[in-house]
Amino acid sequence: MRAQKKKQEKGTRLSRPPAADILRFSLSEGRKKTRLRLKQFLRLLPPTAVMLSAKEWVLKRYKNVYSFLRTLRKRQKAKKEKTFRNMNGEIIAIGNELTSGRVLNTTSRFAAGLLFSAGHEITAMVTIGDTPAEITETLKRAVKRSDFVIVTGGLGATSDDLTNEVVGQALGLPVVFYPEVFAKVKTRLSKADDKTLDGLRKLAEMPVGAKVLNPDARMAGYLLLHDNTPIFFLPGVPHEMQELLAGKVIPRLDAWHTDKSKHVKQKVFRVFGLGETVINRHVAHLEKEGDSRVRIGYYPVFPEVHLSLTVIDEDESEIDSTFGNLEKEIKHILGDALFGTDDETMESVVGELLQNQKKILATAESCSGGLIAHKITSIPGSSDYFVGGVVAYSNELKEKLLGVAPTLIEAHGAVSAEVARAMADGIRHKTAADIGVSVTGIAGPTGGTPEKPVGTVFIGLATPDNTVVIPCRFSGERWQIQELTAVKSLDLVRRLLLGLKFKNV
Q: Nearest Cα to 493, choosing from 360, 306, 341, 379?
């Protein structure tokens, strides 16, 4: 009788109960250590036949609930690895200035580190001069042996910038003129004469089929697809390359091997004031185990951190809902450290706020050497909200142009909260601006003291109602301290215009 019963049970096709019941049972028994989505149960569990209870179904097929959950995790991990294949890439840096040793090739090092952190392996990094034959040979070899190729340099308007023409010849693609790209160039250089603009037409000449990465950037960069291999052409200027790599290239690589029938939605969140590890710690839970639809990447682009969100799904309505919920939660987590998305920069965000609120800004700079004014005026139309600035590097100019009292400098030193306050007040009164920004500090590598070490910076912010001074303590090389000073100053203006709290560094 017992043998007959065993035989009957063996021939019976065990079925699963409703997935919701299994989910509730597994989570309660597993002490909620594993959170698995209902839809994933439906895909992973076998079809139904005879209905059992959740507990009966799990315990008949597995030793215990933990064994059941482990099996599901393994299946989901295998499925995720199959869906997203990390790619092997090659980086090619072009420029005689690199091969001659006059300029250090920092772009390749940065690109390799960022791509590696995104899960891709760089199999080769090559530095070559502006020689057509060498460019052709190197590019053809890279396309044959790599899943993707990054090419930096040679995209400028001078006669030795040969990348576009040589690439066209190497891949059998004619170089054509892209009027929409040139229109952006003319917009940025509205005061340039015709002769100057004619010399810049080369910036808008690219091989046919090129997909522009960011038409609003000074060097747009572009993507070519050759033999199903993506080739990204980026500028050789470090900060321009870094922006495009983090904001445009890596998100595209994240979704490259996705089934083309699926829908992809992406966004880059730009953060200032929070470190990469801090952001990761607070956001990591959004990448739920086994959910291959969601990918989140963290990419430091000094002095910012860029967080990229990619959602992939077969259902277009589902992807909008999932993406919207994740975007909302990411914005909540990042808070006021999130200053922009995608192609927005700190200076463009501040400029838009100033323009919308009809405010006028003026700057008084010392240790930053005019970098704040440079960033502001890099945005087209900045004359609507930026009246101008003063680089008062010496004490004499601080006194003559900004009205800083000599006794104030003698009593507190040029690098002090008192002088920063006087500089901000002075530039605002001199220019009749709504907001006056001042910076004074020690960018190094020399000039520091035990009381005021290198990296000590005071940022003043003056309005008709109040003047505040934010003391900062930055670290790094001279250019890093200057960059941090400029971006921090703009961030303080952003916070002022949005009514947010100021934060010291």
A: 360
Query: 111 φ, ψ to 5°?
Result: -60, -45
Sequence-ordered alpha helix ranges (H) in 84-237: 96-99, 106-117, 132-145, 163-171, 179-188, 194-199
Q: E strand or H helix at 82, and its extent?
A: helix 65-83
Using CA atoms, how far apart are residues 414 and 419, in angstroms rounded to an integer? 6
**Token pair 């003026």 in the structure block, residue:** 362
Q: 206 pairs with which residues across the strands?
A: 176
CA gap 383, 376 in Å, rounded: 9
CB environment 158-177: b (16+ within 10 A), e (fewer): eeebbbbbbbbbbbebebee
- The Cα 366–Cα 376 span in angstroms is 16
Spatial distance between the Cα atoms of 18 and 33, rounded to a whole number of angstroms: 21
Q: Could you report the per-residue pLDDT of 434-446, keeping only the tens digit for each?
A: 999 999 999 999 9
**Rounded Cα distance, 13 and 11, in Å:** 6
Where would I find the beta strands (DSSP E) of 330-466? Answer: 338-341, 361-365, 386-391, 435-441, 456-462
State the Cα–Cα distance between residues 11 and 347, nearest whole angstrom: 71
Which of 175, 167, 176 shows the shortest CA–CA distance to 140?
167
The pTM assigned to this predicted structure is 0.67
3-state DSSP assignment of residue 381: coil
- Quote the CA–CA distance of 505 and 502 in Å, as a whole number: 10
Per-residue confidence at 360, pLDDT binned at 50, 70, 90? very high
Distance CA 299, CA 306 (A): 5
The pLDDT of 16-20, averaged and rounded, is: 48
Report the alpha-carbon distance of residue 394 to residue 418 in Å, rounded: 16
Interatomic CA distance for residues 153 and 128, integer angstroms: 10
The Cβ-side half-sphere exposure at 359, using a 13 Å CA radius, reads 21
* Helix orientation angle between 54-61 and 65-83, rounded to the nearest 10 degrees: 80
* Residues 301-356 pLDDT 10s: 889 999 989 888 777 778 888 899 999 999 999 999 999 998 899 999 999 999 99
Nearest to 306 by CA among 332, 340, 281: 340
Secondary structure (3-state) at 300:
strand
Rounding to the nearest 10 degrees, give the CA dihedral for residues 336, 337, 342, 347. 90
Beta bridge mates, 177: 205
Q: How many CB atoms lie within 10 A of CB 73?
A: 14
Pairing of strands 361-365, 435-441: parallel
| 3 state DSSP class of 343 | coil
* Dist. CA 252–CA 230, nearest whole Å: 10
State the DSSP H helix or E strand holding residue 470, giving kind and residue range, or none if neither.
Answer: strand 467-473
Q: What are the tens digits of pLDDT across the range 380-429?
A: 899 999 999 999 999 999 999 999 999 999 999 999 999 999 999 999 99
